[in-house]
Amino acid sequence: MPRVEKEDQESMAMKLLSVQNSPVECEFYVCKWDKQVWGRLNVPKHSFILWMAIQDKLKTKVRLFKFKVIDEEVCGLCNIHKENVEHLFFHCSFSHVCLQVLKTWLGWNVRAEDLQSLIRWIERSKQSQFKKKVLAAALVYHLWRARNDEVLKISSSSQEVIIRRTKEAVKLRVSCAMPRKVSSEDKNWFAEL
Q1: Is the pLDDT of residue 54 over 80?
Q2: Span 77-98, pLDDT tens digits
Q3: For 179-188, which contacts have Cβ atoms below 8 Å and span 24 or more sequence positions?
Q4: Which of 54, 91, 102, 144 has the fewest CB atoms within 10 Å around its CB?
Q5: Burial environment of residue 60 by CB neighbours within 10 A (0 to 12, 13 to 18, 19 or more)
Q6: Which residue range(s) make up the domain with 72?
Q7: Residue 82 CA to chain centroid, in angstroms?
Q8: DSSP letters along 22-33, please?
Q9: How far apart are CA 189 and CA 42, in angstroms?
Q10: Which phi and psi (to 5°) does residue 82 adopt?
C-alpha cells in the first residue's frame, strides 16, 4: 500500500472541504401559477383539480385509452374530438361557451388557448390581486365534474347549470374567505357579480 505524505493528506482534505462548501449549481423550475392554484379564495378540491389539469395528469379519455382502460377517446361533452386537457377546457364546443360566459361575467378580456396561457394572462393582468384569484379553479373543477357525470352516466349537465354552479361556488367561497385588505372598488365589483 503506497504511503501518503502528510502534505498530500492536507491538500486532499482542503480539496474535500472546498467541494463541500462550494455552492451546488442547480437549475430550479420557477412555478408561475402556484398563487392562482393554491390561493385562499379557491376551494381546496377545485385547486387540486386545477393543479392536476396544469400538470396534465387528469385521467382524460386520451390517457385512459393509452393505458387500454377504455376503448374510445372521444370527448364526452361534445362527442366529436379526442378528449385531452387542452381540448376539454378550451377547444370543446361545450366548455368553450362556459368559459366565454364566465370571462364576460368577470370582465376578463383574454383569448387563451390552454391553461398555461390563461394562468399567465391572469398573472400579468393589470387587474387587482383580488380579481385575479377568483375564477380559474372553480371553472376547471365544474367542467371536470360535468365531464365525469357524463362519462359515468350519472347525469347530464347543461352549460347553464355548469355556469350557475361555478358562479355560486365562486360567490360562496369568496364571501366566506374574503380577505381583510380588499379595496372598496373590489368589494363593490364582487357585490355586483
Answers
A1: yes
A2: 899 999 999 999 889 999 989 8
A3: 179/40, 179/41, 179/130, 182/130, 183/128, 183/130, 185/128, 186/128, 186/130, 186/131
A4: 91
A5: buried
A6: 34-192
A7: 21
A8: SPP----PPPSS
A9: 18
A10: -65, 140
Tally of structural domains, the chain? 1
| Confidence check: pLDDT of 158 > 60 | yes
Residue 6 lies in a domain: no
Q: Kindly give, in sequence order, each residue whose CB lies less than 8 Å from that of residue 87, ignoring residues fewer than 6 positions away.
A: 75, 81
3 state DSSP class of 165 = helix
Amino acid at 43: V
Residues contacting residue 38 through CB under 8 Å, at least 6 positions apart: 47, 51
> 91: which 3 cell numbers?
377547444
pLDDT score, position 19: 46
Give residue 26's pLDDT: 47
Q: What single-letter amino acid sits at 84?
A: N
Residue 99 lies in a domain: yes
Confidence of residue 27 (pLDDT cuts 50, 70, 90): low
The three three-digit cell numbers of residue 125, written as one number: 393582468
Q: What cell does 165 get? A: 354552479
